[in-house]
Write a structure and sequence with these properties.
With about 200 residues, the protein is an all-beta fold. The protein is built from no helices and 15 strands.
Length: about 200
């Protein structure tokens, strides 16, 4: 329910424009020993061609991490999260990287219907994930609403019981549908061949 704060990252919802969730997922390499950890539902970035955790709100995103596979001591393994500093070979991250994908996420405080006008962006909380469930601790940081650049842009309120944004009690920690506004592909420029920094 949206009266309880239980941040658990971003969950794929659909493709913007009404198409159902087609996952739009691809594999990206993770360098052995990468730190810090990242979890299912975390927004991730790239550095030197490898997937890395999002550690600042100004980084650009490649997408949302949903799990990984790797070889450790000769044994293939799969996990909901990447362990910080893990020594592994053939490590691959599964990332929902479609720039038109939308995601469900819970806000860390109250959001009003006025925040849904299409002109506001929000930062993401960089909460720690759970090594028990593998789930993210990310949420939409409600107090950061801005018309300037930020990581997330609300698209809609999740239509489910107990999540009525027009009800003061139910909008305490609402669940929203968002898109990633600071996606790498949102910064593509025909006149530039180098990838964006960060």
């Amino acid at each position: 329910m949206s009266t309880t704060k239980a941040l658990s990252g971003l969950r794929p919802s659909r493709r913007r424009g009404g198409a159902p969730n087609g996952s739009g997922m691809n594999e990206y390499p993770i360098a052995s020993g990468t730190t810090p950890a990242f979890f299912n539902g975390d927004i991730v970035s790239q550095s030197g061609g490898y997937i890395v955790a999002l550690v600042t709100i100004t980084q650009k995103a490649i997408g949302v991490f949903t799990g990984c596979r790797y070889v450790e001591n000769g044994e293939p393994k799969w996990s909901n999260y990447w362990t910080a500093g893990l020594s592994a070979t053939d490590a691959q991250a599964m990332v929902v990287d479609d720039p038109n994908a939308t995601f469900e996420i819970q806000a860390d405080a109250s959001v009003s219907i006025g925040d849904m006008n299409g002109g506001f962006n929000f930062n993401v909380t960089l909460g720690s994930g759970s090594t028990v469930t593998g789930r993210s601790g990310f949420g939409l940081e409600a107090g950061t609403r801005t018309t300037a650049s930020a990581m997330l842009r609300p698209v809609a309120v999740i239509n489910e019981p107990g999540n009525d944004i027009n009800d003061a009690a139910e909008r305490a920690f609402p669940k929203l549908e968002v898109r990633i506004a600071r996606h790498y592909d949102a910064f593509v420029c025909a006149g530039t061949s180098a990838p964006p920094a960060g």
